[in-house]
Amino acid sequence: MSSSRLRATLFRALYVIPPALVFLKFGYTIGSVNGRSMQPTFNPDSSGLRKDWVLLDRFSPACGKYNVGDVVILSSPSNPEMKLIKRIVALGGDAIRPRHGPGEGVAPGSWILKSQVDEYVRIPKGHCWVESDEPYRGLDSNVFGPVPLGLIDARVDRVIWPLDRFHKIPRILPKPGRVVKSGRLTFEFDDADDAKMVPIWKT
Q1: Cα–Cα distances in Å, from 13 out to 9, 17, 160?
Q2: Catalytic sites, residue numbers
Q3: Residue 143 — pLDDT band, cuts 50, 70, 90?
Q4: Which DSSP string do the residues of the chain spell out, in sequence order?
Q5: Residue 160 to residue 34: CA distance in whole angstroms
Q6: Residue 161 CB neighbours (<10 A)
Q7: What is the value of pTM for the model shown?
Q8: Predicted confidence (pLDDT) per residue in 78-124, tens digit
Q9: Which top CATH class is 28-202?
C-alpha cells in the first residue's frame, strides 16, 4: 500500500473510530444475562441451557434518566469489577420498607438490623434502591443498601435472543405500601445513621 493510500485510510479511521467509541460508551450495546436472580423476567428456563441476550441502553443513564421500575446494569458496590442486573424500586428522597427473605428473618450479611425490620429506609439523594425480581436469589439493596446512581451503567431495553422471547422489558412498579414518595413521610432522625429513619406518619 502506498503512503498516500495509507494516510487516506488513517484519516478515514480517525473520522469513524471516535463516533463508534462514543456510540459504544453512550449508545446501545448487547449483553447476556447470567444467573437466576431476575427470574421470571430473564432466563426463565431453570435448566440453565438457554440464557437471554439483551439490548442495553447506555444513553439514558448518561443523560441522568432513571425511572422506578426500570431494569438496569450496575457495578456491585462491594466489587466494582462485578456487574449486576437489578430493578430500580425507589429513587433518592423516597422511603422504602426493605424486603426480607423467607419468614421474618433478615438476609445474612444484611446492613439492616433485626431491630429495623419494620422501619422505612430513606434513600439519599443521588442514590437508588435496587432489587432482584426473584426475592430469594442474588444480592441487592436489601443486603448492601442504597447505591449511588453513578454505579448504573445501562438500562436493559429488551430481550433480543432467543427469538421466541424477543420483547421489550416492562417497567414493573413496587407493590403499594412498600415505597413512600418523597415529601409524603415525616421521619424521626436516628443519630447513628441518618439513612435509617422511623416513620411517624404518612398520607
Answers
A1: 6, 6, 30
A2: 37, 86
A3: confident
A4: --HHHHHHHHHHHHHHHHHHHHHHHHSEEEEE--SSTTTTTS---TTSS---EEEEE-HHHHTT---TT-EEEEE-SS-TT-EEEEEEEEETT-EE-----STT---TT-SS-GGGTT-EEEPPTTEEEEE-SSTTSS--HHHH--EEGGGEEEEEEEEEESGGG-EEPP-PPPPTTTEE-TTSEEEEPPTT-TTEEEEEEE-
A5: 15
A6: 15
A7: 0.75
A8: 898 999 999 999 999 999 988 865 433 445 555 555 445 557 888 99
A9: mainly beta
* C-alpha grid cell, residue 23: 456510540
By the 10 Å C-beta count (0-12 exposed, 13-18 middle, 19+ buried), 61 is classed as: buried
